């Protein structure tokens, strides 16, 4: 989690980088779980939703930096 006090001191670029790094870590975790875990359809659906959110947030971060 990003420390709320730290966020107050960050500019937009640094905040976007912090969020991008967290999304990348989350994406790697999801990939690892899906690859090594026999999961139920419900868990797979939840990870698919998280993966979709990661993609959407990455697109939004990319658009905001251009």
Secondary structure elements and pairings:
Layout: H1 4-9, H2 12-36, H3 41-65
Helix pairs in contact: 2-3
How large is the radius of gyration? 14 Å
Biggest pleated sheet: none
Strand content: under 5%
**Given the helix and strand composition, which structural class is it?**
mainly alpha
In short:
With 66 residues, this protein is an all-alpha fold. The chain contains 3 helices and no strands.
Please, could you describe this protein's structure?
- This protein has helices at 4-9, 12-36, 41-65.
- The model has no long low-confidence stretch (mean pLDDT 77).
- It has three helices and no strands.
- It has a domain at 40-66.
- Helix content is 85%, strand content 0%.
- It is mainly α.
Keywords:
66 residues; 3 helices; elongated; mainly alpha; 85% helix; single chain
């Amino acid at each position: 989690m990003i420390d709320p006090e730290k966020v107050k001191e960050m500019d937009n670029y640094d905040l976007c980088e912090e969020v991008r790094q967290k999304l990348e870590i989350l994406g790697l975790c999801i990939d690892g779980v899906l690859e090594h875990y026999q999961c139920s359809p419900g868990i797979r659906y939840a990870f698919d939703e998280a993966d979709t959110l990661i993609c959407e947030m990455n697109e939004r971060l990319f658009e905001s930096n251009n």
